[in-house]
Design goal:
mainly beta; 5-stranded antiparallel β-sheet; 4-stranded antiparallel β-sheet; 1 helix; about 45% strand
Length: about 140
């Protein structure tokens, strides 16, 4: 079941690879009434505890497949369903410390029925949430 907020509390945790903490992850939901094709997504902006996350450190997982921002831009045959969360992975050495963290997310997408010039204008909001990371 999805939570009402864009940034979901469930799924917020550090991520490990070969036993080492290599970053953290959290889920977001699509704040739109219908699904969007992955190529419609525009680069996401993420701040954690006031620190801007570089685009190169961000990966999206949608329907079990992990994508870079560049891969999203050319994937026009996969849709992000309104009822499925996307998992956002952030590469960050040692992840986040245990405790409360402020997460700010801003993402946009183009709409198939709007002229391309409107891509720069349309935004579906900035979202902020304080979450507890249990390490």
């Amino acid at each position: 079941m999805l939570e009402k907020e864009c940034i979901q509390a469930r799924g917020f945790r550090n991520t490990k690879k070969a036993g080492e903490i290599v970053g953290f992850q959290f889920d977001i939901r699509l704040m739109y009434y219908r699904g969007v094709w992955l190529s419609q997504l525009r680069p996401i902006s993420i701040r954690v505890d006031g620190e801007q996350i570089p685009q190169a450190a961000i990966r999206w997982e949608i329907e079990g497949v992990v994508y870079t921002e560049a891969e999203l831009a050319v994937t026009g045959d996969v849709q992000w369903n309104v009822l499925s969360p996307a998992t956002i992975y952030i590469a960050k050495e040692n992840g986040l410390s245990s405790g409360y963290h402020s997460i700010e997310v801003s993402y946009r997408f183009s709409s198939s029925y709007m002229p391309p010039e409107m891509d720069e204008v349309l935004s579906y909001g900035d979202h902020q949430r304080d979450l507890l990371l249990i390490a």
